[in-house]
Design goal:
Layout: E1 5-9, H1 17-25, E2 30-37, E3 44-52, H2 55-65, E4 69-70, E5 73-74, E6 76-79
Antiparallel strand pairs: 1-3, 1-6, 2-3, 4-5
Protein name: RNA recognition motif (RRM, RBD, or RNP domain)
InterPro entries: Nucleotide-bd_a/b_plait_sf, RBD_domain_sf, RRM2_NsCP33-like, RRM_dom, SLIRP/GR-RBP-like
Keywords: RNA-binding
Length: 101
């Protein structure tokens, strides 16, 4: 069974969240659509996420849009995977002081 949250990759850099909403809307109710942007530049990273209202609609969107042309690029549409923990926490400094006597 397919989840309701989908990954959409290989987007043209000018694509907006509303473009995604319109594109996926032909397959059902879009609960949310977001094109991911670079934090520093604000430019699209070329991918986004769409949440459909049901698993059936999500499966239809994958079937209907994966490897299809959108503004000259072949889309990659599949079920979104859970976000991986990329660590974080600011480098290797462990704190604590050295002991001088």
């Amino acid at each position: 069974m397919v989840g309701k949250k989908l990954y959409c990759g290989n987007l043209v850099f000018g694509a907006s969240s509303s473009d995604l909403e319109q594109l996926f809307g032909q397959f059902g109710v879009v609960e949310s659509a977001q094109v991911i942007s670079d934090r520093e530049t604000g430019r699209s990273k070329g991918f986004g996420f769409v949440e459909m209202s049901s698993s059936e609609e999500a499966a239809a969107a994958i079937e209907g849009l994966n490897e299809k042309d959108f503004e000259g690029r072949s889309l990659v549409v599949n079920e979104a995977r859970p976000r991986e923990d990329r660590g974080g926490g600011g480098g290797g400094y462990r704190g604590g002081g050295g002991g001088r006597y």
